[in-house]
Amino acid sequence: MSQNELYPIFLKVSQLNVLIIGGGNVALEKLTFLLKSSPNAQVLVVSKDFDEKLIELTEEFNVSTVTAAYSKSALKNKQIVIAATNNEQVNKQIYLDAKSENILINVADTPKLCDFYLGGIVTKGNIKIAISTNGKSPTLAKRLRQFFEEVIPDNIDDLANNLNAFRKTIKGNFQEKVDTLNDLTKGIIEKK
Ligand SMILES: C[C@@]1(CC(=O)O)C2=NC(=C\c3[nH]c(c(CCC(=O)O)c3CC(=O)O)Cc3[nH]c(c(CC(=O)O)c3CCC(=O)O)/C=C3\N/C(=C\2)[C@@H](CCC(=O)O)[C@]3(C)CC(=O)O)/[C@H]1CCC(=O)O
Ligand SMILES: NC(=O)c1ccc[n+]([C@@H]2O[C@H](COP(=O)([O-])OP(=O)(O)OC[C@H]3O[C@@H](n4cnc5c(N)ncnc54)[C@H](O)[C@@H]3O)[C@@H](O)[C@H]2O)c1
């Protein structure tokens, strides 16, 4: 069985500069899911023109837009770039420019031109689960996301908050705290 070797990290996109190039369907999908997970993400969208729904989204969130064709200067001060134009040559150029500047790049829907993939994301309060199929099937990533959204109870966040509060009340050194917390929560994974 081949293994997914991607390493997931949870980025504070409210304190990073994200650039999306393109203002069509694909840009809309990527921006929708980025903002669903991270409503305070700092995003700039540069495109020759914009889908009406994308404009609505930018007005609702902290997203700026610039109407322009892509040029390398758009990469200035950006840490993460998503290329979503309908021009393969332009997407390839964005990829090469981003690599030359050491900026993380995702050419939407084009695995071979991605440093990272966007995933299916489930958020329940403080709890977040990110799902990747290693690029094998975005449809499956979506279905798994919907499945976990359904089966994970909304009040899982209460458990996280209660454990956080309880941790502060436990006396002892680090190892004693770890032991107490593990003891308390072992029922979660014990088979009945
Ligand atoms: C998870 C999600 C996140 C997001 O977009 O934020 C996401 N794609 C989503 C939906 C989706 N995208 C597409 C369909 C149509 C059905 C289909 O073709 O399967 C559907 C399903 C639908 O819309 O129903 C088209 C598509 N996408 C990619 C390819 C190329 C290829 O597969 O080779 C093609 C074919 C293009 C073509 O035909 O040319 C590639 C990628 N899409 C990824 C992410 C990365 C892999 C994630 C992973 O590891 O699983 C990766 C590799 C790169 C990237 O873009 O980051 C989001 C679901 C969000 C949610 O619902 O929660
Ligand atoms: N729509 C889909 O569901 C889908 C699925 C799989 C793959 N794709 C592919 O993904 C790409 C994007 O698709 P889409 O549906 O978003 O296209 P689209 O036509 O809706 O949007 C393309 C956007 O790119 C912008 N653009 C074009 N050239 C530009 C440039 N030089 N600088 C800045 N912006 C530029 C356009 O102004 C437009 O806003 C296409 O290559 C398409 O074949 C689309």
UniProtKB/TrEMBL annotation:
In its UniProt entry, the species of origin is given as: Lutibacter oricola
Name the UniProt record assigns to this protein: precorrin-2 dehydrogenase
The UniProt record lists the Siroheme synthase central domain at 125-149
**Which Enzyme Commission numbers does its entry carry?**
1.3.1.76
Write out the catalysed reaction.
precorrin-2 + NAD(+) = sirohydrochlorin + NADH + 2 H(+)
Report the coiled-coil segments.
Answer: none
Q: Which Pfam families match?
A: NAD_binding_7, Sirohm_synth_M
| Pathway membership, UniProt | Porphyrin-containing compound metabolism; siroheme biosynthesis; sirohydrochlorin from precorrin-2: step 1/1
Q: Which InterPro entries match?
A: Met8-like, NAD(P)-bd_dom_sf, Sirohaem_synthase_central, Sirohaem_synthase_N
Q: Which UniProt keywords apply?
A: NAD, Oxidoreductase, Porphyrin biosynthesis
* Any one GO BP annotation for this protein: siroheme biosynthetic process
- Tell me the GO molecular function terms: ferrochelatase activity; precorrin-2 dehydrogenase activity
